[in-house]
Amino acid sequence: MKSMAYTQNPHLPKVRRDAADLVRRGWGVRQVARYVGVSPGTVTKWVKKATKYGYHPIPTLSSKPKHHPKQLSDDLVWKIFRKRVAIKRSAEVVQRELVNEGVMVSLSSVKRTLDRGGLLKKRSPWKRYKVPIIRPNVEKQGDLVQVDTIHLPTSRGRVYVFTILDVFSRWAYARAYKRATSRIAKNFVGLAQGKAPFPFKVIQSDNGSEFSVWFSEHIKSVHRHSRVRRPNDNAHLERFNRTIQEECLDQVPRKVEDLNSAILKYIKYYNEKRLHFGINLQTPLQVLTGKCFQAID
Description:
Strand order of the largest sheet: 3-2-1-4-5
Number of domains: 3
Radius of gyration: 33 Å
Shape: elongated
Largest sheet: 5 strands, mixed
CATH topology of the largest domain: Nucleotidyltransferase, domain 5
Helix content: 40-55%
Number of helices: 11
Order of helices and strands: HHHHHHEEEHEHEHHH
Oligomer: single chain
């Protein structure tokens, strides 16, 4: 908690200095007090402080108390510090760990102690706020389309394969790029929309830097983020990412041109011929066209 001063008047330090200087020049303490509008005792204190500061503004001291009857002991403070450094977890976990060890301390005390020690991770003031959007009910194609990036390491760095999948029909599209930026992600979604036979209503992605607020503002669809460290929120696309890697990407040299050539053929096979258990052993094309087949026992 930030210490608050008795006053926030930015001119008062100079007023104190000038009042003490008037006393040094021969004015009486009461005369200066009437002139400034304070008590004589206050002026006397300013004169004493002026011997320390000289002809410099006399600063306003903090109103924070030096001691408090309920302040944490030094031993408890160090226990909180050591536990935080040892387990590298949140304040909630640190507090529960201490309670389990018989050390009774409140969560607010743990947070305040970690904050004062610079051990509390705070939200960056430069990070823009993401408006939460409720996950839609998937009743038809385009209701929820998931997008992600596969990072493929190479001898010279990485190549990136952007993937997108419609949850309802399992229709998918992918393309490889040399970089993964918000602009490339936006262009990829636009390219995928041009290939898809249905409009994208809601786009869902993880919290990667390529799916930033700028990306949200520049795509035509509604954009929502999955929960942090919850890959199951994008489970359908995560499974597709594994499938395309096992059946396509792992057999191709990791060059953008070679990858895109192989992906083009694989996506056509995936959408038109590959049967999916998740859609009752149909292809995405059959779901989109409504040509469903009855299962034979």
